[in-house]
Amino acid sequence: MINPYEIISKSALPAFRAMVSKRLAQNYNLTQQQVALRLGVTQASVSNYARKARGTMLNLEVDPNLARAADQVAQVLSSEKPDQREALRMMTEVCDYIRFNHVMCKLHEDLDPEFKTEGCAACVGGLTLESSHIKTRAAV
Which DSSP state fits 135? Predict the structure, then answer.
């Protein structure tokens, strides 16, 4: 059984980072090292994104909402003093969007053929403040 968060961390997030990386390099003329610093990854990761050796399991460019989100994250990270917290918030929203809108269901079935995503509710909804399984801290 593959947890949806594993797919996000190993496939969706690298695919989104690749999108942002490409935009930072092409639209803002940043070097791979500058892109890496802004994204919080290594220069080697950025090189792999550019060569399409990483971040290619999901094509997120086909979703106009995700393409716009990549543009916005790149814009935030392109400044001389990028707002890392805002970029992190936006990227977290992207991960939630990917999960809640079932963007990775086909990949999930490809990776785990025994698991049928039809009728699956693993990616539906979010954690309430008073879940029956886990308690969360209320926002301060």
Answer: B
